[in-house]
Amino acid sequence: xxxxxxxxxxxxxxxxxxxxxxxxxxxxxxxxxxxxxxxxxxxxxxxxxxxxxxxxxxxxxxxxxxxxxxxxxx
Length: 74
Description:
- This is 6413_t:CDS:1.
- It comes from Funneliformis caledonium.
- With 74 residues, the protein is an all-alpha fold.
- 97% of the residues lie in helices and 0% in strands.
- The longest helix is centred in the middle third of the chain and has 72 residues, at 2-73.
- The protein is rod-shaped and about 105 Å long.
């Protein structure tokens, strides 16, 4: 009976350890997927910021040009 109990105990322990490892690996996989999605969003956002920055620069140049032309006409 002692051997049977020990065998069950270690089998249960192995099962629990395996289950913990599977759960841990599953969480790691979920985090990897989430990190990939967040990196894509970040890259997209950075691209949008860069585009907006270029647009602001162009608009600022047009505004300066128009101000000069306006002053020249006065």
